[in-house]
Amino acid sequence: MIVKEELYTVKELDFPEVNLQLKSNDIVYVTFKDNCNLDIPLQMRLLDYYYDITDGKLMHFMFFAAENVSLSKEARDNAVKIEDQSMLGATAVVVDTLAYKLIANFYLKFNKPKRPYQVFSKEEDAIKWLKTIKF
What we know:
Elements: E1 9-14, E2 18-23, E3 27-32, E4 37-38, H1 40-54, E5 59-65, E6 70-71, H2 73-81, E7 88-94, H3 98-111, E8 117-120, H4 123-132
């Protein structure tokens, strides 16, 4: 019998555009809220938020998006440039719509992140994959 791990929130930061939760499985869960426009100013604030929630340590991150979340081309291009400054040791993107899946896979294919990055349709699969990544 497989026993599902009971998760609890260790630390949480909540902002108008995004919610971040460090869970007991040592994964940072990032949820972009409804109608969030991920542009460069938000992206730069996110660097600070990530540093705060991880206490400056590289960690596993899992990303989710609510309704109508958009990513500017400038922010997409900037993401790889600032990757070395971020606390994202490995990134799992969990998508529940075809549109989000296309965006996440487009980023992977054309922006080529330097650190491990994978797209999933199930959170459980994302957790399993993240647990295999050591840094």
